[in-house]
Amino acid sequence: xxxxxxxxxxxxxxxxxxxxxxxxxxxxxxxxxxxxxxxxxxxxxxxxxxxxxxxxxxxxxxxxxxxxxxxxxxxxxxxxxxxxxxxxxxxxxxxxxxxxxxxxxxxxxxxxxxxxx
Amino acid sequence: xxxxxxxxxxxxxxxxxxxxxxxxxxxxxxxxxxxxxxxxxxxxxxxxxxxxxxxxxxxxxxxxxxxxxxxxxxxxxxxxxxxxxxxxxxxxxxxxxxxxxxxxxxxxxxxxxxxxxxxxxxxxxxxxxxxxxxxxxxxxxxxxxxxxxxxxxxxxxxxxxxxxxxxxxxxxxxxxxxxxxxxxxxxxxxxxxxxxxxxxxxxxxxxxxxxxxxxxxxxxxxxxxxxxxxxxxxxxxxxxxxxxxxxxxxxxxxxxxxxxxxxxxxxxxxxxxxxxxxxxxxxxxxxxxxxxxxxxxxxxxxxxxxxxxxxxxxxxxxxxxxxxxxxxxxxxxxxxxxxxxxxxxx
Lengths: 117, 346
Description:
The complex is a heterodimer. Chain A is an alpha+beta fold. Chain A has helices spanning 2-15, 50-57, 73-80, 109-115, and strands at residues 20-24, 27-34, 39-42, 84-89, 95-100, 106-108. Chain B is 40% helix and 16% strand. The radius of gyration of chain B is 22 Å and the shape is globular. The mean pLDDT of chain B is 85. Classes of the chains: A alpha+beta, B alpha+beta.
């Protein structure tokens, strides 16, 4: 039993290695690296969160996105699929755009782009 | 022996054409106090890069200890009708006479205004930009002045256009009276929003040099200017960002209105990698650029130790322990796509 608990702990640590507190609209959000997807996710993103489901679909890459004025093309791609984009600040105060799914789960827009076919 | 000497001579001669410069990793670099920005859907790249160039200068000359420029403030002061229609040169030139409202003051005022509609600064800027784009498109098309009916339509268009970046629960109806009352450009509206926070008494006057802009007529001139300027300091440049997607892309300098993803970034270094000379570019697309830097070597930082990893590859871009601070692009490739440079250096 102890071994089982230990293994579970190790795997759960692996899944959410490298969590940091980002801020969004003045609120703290726990953001974690998930190596399986090579992306940053909101901590509440469990196995069935919509962010993961979307990445698993490996959608086709849009042919073009609107990027006038230097808009971030990764963020624009997220919007092309109909999702919202939120910009979060990491603990070093640098910004990163995240794709936000209807269940509230977040994944960084770069991971979304990398998941496309 | 002669062969070895010959190779050494050739190597050293080539290396001299591309001496290493890195304004990010040098000791006490001002860039360590200037966070990497992600402009998301706000199309004011010129203001983002101009604010970073000004912050670099202010930190370098010890006029401030932290980054103080807000991109929206520079966009406001660029004396253009539209928020997104500006240049780095114009924004900095106008900032010199307008004075500086701090990042916190501008962000605070935008957030305070947005509170009534439950919207924060960045989506608010995008919304105002979308509203204005819609209203001026119709106004120009009809060649008439702005009517209340047109404002209503533009308002709905802006809601649709920004639905994907505005968080749930935005009370858009509370913004309409403000937009209607303004009957003005986005620049004027945002000026009104920050009017109290950025009242003349609250503005700082920094010693900011007059920027210079170099329009680049051809690829050879562009390359010579990039090589020359990077030895003097960081600078901003306007270019076709399509080059990140398509390394073979070349801008058509004769064409007007070419949709090449015109963008602005900061040049922050130069280095020879392998047989080629590369420029180091600091972008405003966050700490990773998706597949746009997938095949590029970058300058990364270990997020735990703060150690630099130069020439980091995708395996390190995306390992959860590093952030992308800047990426390399071949100088020839950039020369084919750069339109102009803005610098403080003569």
